[in-house]
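Exercise 7.
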Amino acid sequence: MALDRSEVIELYRRRARRYDFTANLYYLIGFRIEAYRRAAVAGLALRSGDTVVDIGCGTGLNFRLLERAVGSSGRVIGVDATDAMLDRARCRVAREGWTNVELVSCDAARFDFPAELGGILSTFALTLVSEYDAVIERGARALRAGRRWAVADLKQPGWRGARLCARALAPLYRPFAVTLDLASRHPWESIATHMKKSTLSPRFFGFAYVATGEA
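Solution. The predicted structure, written as tokens, is:
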């Protein structure tokens, strides 16, 4: 059964200290999580000076890619509901000496997107938000014309036998609050509904995807 908001926050509080290490363990089964993050950031087509929002930023694993894309004249806004994850992100920002990265403690469903954004990103976080459709719709309204939302996340593929495979993989994802109940949440469909020129690129045999849409 899918965890509620408070349960997800508590789980990520416990996992924050070792999150970066444990997330990279998925490489052992061929799940190229860093490559999917890079593809999502590339899909934003960011420009120097842009302001970009990272929804569910966690420990800040996307910040280096985003900061490099927008340059010193741009701004990166990392949003997360878990204080312990933001503490780790804050340490990352201080260690790297980034002065254009802002951290916001807020649930994605309640975040007030700034206007005229150059891009919005969410990697392996948005499916955990039950109000994901409303988040995508509000974010789309905050983007400048022609600018993009990008989501990298998990999904259940449609090929025969996928459900059995998903059940076999479920224990690997459960430590990150991902359960089979979340298969009914389709953020890529919300992107297609609320935006134009939407794309969907399946990854890892269809168990992951990178989706983009243009405002």
